[in-house]
Amino acid sequence: MTLDELRTQLNDLDRRLLELIGERQRASREVARVKRATGYPTRDYARERDVIVGARARAAGLGVPADVAEGVMRLLIRSSLATQEQASVSALGAGSGQRALVIGGAGKIGGWFVNFLASQGYQVEIADPSAGAGAVGVATISDWRSSALDQELIVVATPLGATDAILQELAVRRPVGVVFDVGSLKSPLRAGLAALRVAGVRVTSVHPMFGPSTELLSGRHVIFIDLGAGDALERARALFTPTMVEQVVMDLEDHDRLIAYVLGLSHALNIAFFTALAQSGEAAPRLVQMSSTTFDAQFDIASEVAQESPELYFEIQRLNDYGAQPLAALAQALEALRATVNGNDPAGFAALMRRGLEYTQGRRELRARRA
Q: Residue 243 has what DSSP assignment?
């Protein structure tokens, strides 16, 4: 066969592969329907392992590398789970006949909530000065203050610097529906959240631990802050019941203390990483050419961090009442590392590594059980 004929054959195989993937997606929607009808959970880790082990076993006989077969199956499983999750959210229709207002709905995370609520049957309205023409079924206004605030649900998805003032203004208006913010920090929102509580508003606070591009919520976390309004907390949690997200409930102080490490420390570590590289005088392309697996993984994460909003990341560092603690811990850890290396202390270095192994053991075991 000529090169052109071989390429035509590959194009035909690619088309058939896509057709089969389409059939698999349609079957996934049927699987979702049966699971809902029988009360079966959307995700079954044992079944996933069986599929992957079977794919690896069959791959050898087909002349396909086992790792390639596993990678393809994991991608298909993830796509299937996303399809099933979206079907379950839509089928529940928890918001059918109800209205929701998303203040800041033209932003990235605000837009995610607009789509998420619309998929549950809510009639969604966006209040955002940046909003253009709304999507089908989504009305837009430039200023939330012009709304009657008679919606069953009000989501505040504005930048941290503006959110507290909005919460305080909402407390004055005393909306009848459930109100929650989606800020990544709660320290800057204390006054607004307290004002809503005092005003008798059904208020809670939510922190989705994922970005706006997320499609599959399995393995993701959403944190819910208990502010004493039990019905508001349960209403917010119910929004995510049809999904596979892992729900975590805690109080405001625990949230910001822990998030200082989960976000603040991880951000700071990556900022320090790419800052050290940028100041080293070494060209990134040369480093990448001779990089290791560890370097590649760290460089990829740092590259994503470098593309994020400097304003948001500064707020996460500066506005958290507990933000100084992880920065101090990072400085101390670097100094301890320097001391062992500069002091020619292999035992001290090994102790650092051993302590890290012990600390991370539980997390690694959990990931291994789910792999």
A: S
Q: Chain-centre distance of CA 166, in angstroms?
A: 24
Is the alpha carbon torsion for 138, 141, 143, 145 positive or negative?
negative
Cβ contact 126:102 at 8 Å: yes
CATH of the domain at 69: 1.20.59.10
Sheet holding 246-250, edge to edge: 139-141, 123-127, 99-103, 153-156, 178-181, 203-208, 221-225, 246-250
Do 85 and 174 lie in one domain? The reply is no
Write down the mean pLDDT value for the chain: 91
Q: What percent of the chain has pLDDT over 90?
A: 73
Residue length of the chain: 371
Residue identified by tokens 């590398």 is 65
* Residue 87 amino acid letter: A
Tell me which amino acid residue 14 is: D
Number of domains observed in the structure of the chain: 3
Domain boundary among 250, 274, 302: 250
Q: Which among 220, 250, 280 is the end of a domain? A: 250
Cα–Cα distance, 365 to 313 (Å, whole number) = 31
Give the pairing of strands 246-250 and 221-225.
Answer: parallel
In a shared domain, residues 45 and 141: no
127-177 confidence digits (pLDDT tens): 999 876 555 568 899 999 999 999 999 999 999 989 999 999 999 999 999
Q: Give pTM, 2 decimals.
A: 0.82
pLDDT band for position 225 (50/70/90)?
Answer: very high
- What was the pLDDT predicted at 132? 67
**Residue range of the domain that includes 60:** 3-91
Pairing of strands 139-141, 221-225: unpaired
Of 50, 42, 45, 52, which is closest to residue 73 (Cα–Cα)? 52
Task: Give pLDDT tens digits for 275-327.
Answer: 999 999 988 888 888 889 999 999 999 999 999 989 989 999 999 999 999 99
Alpha-carbon distance of 345 to 352, in angstroms, equals: 11
Structure tokens at 71: 């990678």
Exposure class string for 75-97: b at 16+ Cβ within 10 A, else e: ebbebbbbbbbbbbbeebeebee
Helix (H) or strand (E) holding 203, with range, is strand 203-208
Q: How far is it, in rounded angstroms, from Cα 72 to Cα 241?
A: 29
- Is the alpha carbon torsion for 349, 350, 353, 359 positive or negative? negative
